[in-house]
Please model this.
Amino acid sequence: MQDIFHIILLSSGSVVALFILTKLMGYRQMSELSMFDYINGITIGSIAAEMATALEDGVTKTLTAMIVYAFFSIALSYISMKSMKGRRIIAGRPIILLNDGVIYEKNLKKAKIDLSELLVQCRVNGYFDISKIQTAILEDNGKISFLPKSEERPITPNDMGLKPKSDHMVANLIIDGKLMKNNLKHSGKDTIWLNKQLAAFGVTDMKEVLLATCDLENNVTVYRKNEMEHKGESDVLD
Model:
């Protein structure tokens, strides 16, 4: 029983340590991680798991190892941000795989990518005909970027001489029946104005609202809780 309690305590400590170290190393998506970052993250996670069951040796050694790995990750990330040369050494540099109808076989070998894999990535990104691609670049995070030929890219408003209004984020005023006071304040409105807007939607109590948003032009959108059930509808299709 004592060992179980000790494991629970150590596991909680390892989770806290892993959370803190992850915060220090910063936020990045999996697709943005370099190979070193990916392996380093797995190693830190493995050490944290070992820390959770370190009954005899204690936590000092495992915690120290986690901190050392995290320190190197933070240090290399800092060097990458401050030095272009350092970034090229640590993360590598983009490699052109295809350009203007020419496939660079030498660069494919350098990137350890065969032609079949390149074609798979083309299809995954919606290019079933490789001749429609102007340039394909392998980024330093291992992801391939594709630039379609000018005649294959979608028409933009600029191509048609149009100047649409810029899109902006909307403010979430109510979430799950709770008033977001800071968002309401930053939008320059008050509860009196909000209640009037809700009344226009037939809402008398904020708790009835699942989500309410407001854009820069003061257009309010309200999503009521269980609105489909109120209408006698169901979210299950026959």
Summary: Confidence is low (pLDDT under 50) at residues 228-234. Residues 94 and 140 are 5 Å apart (CA to CA).
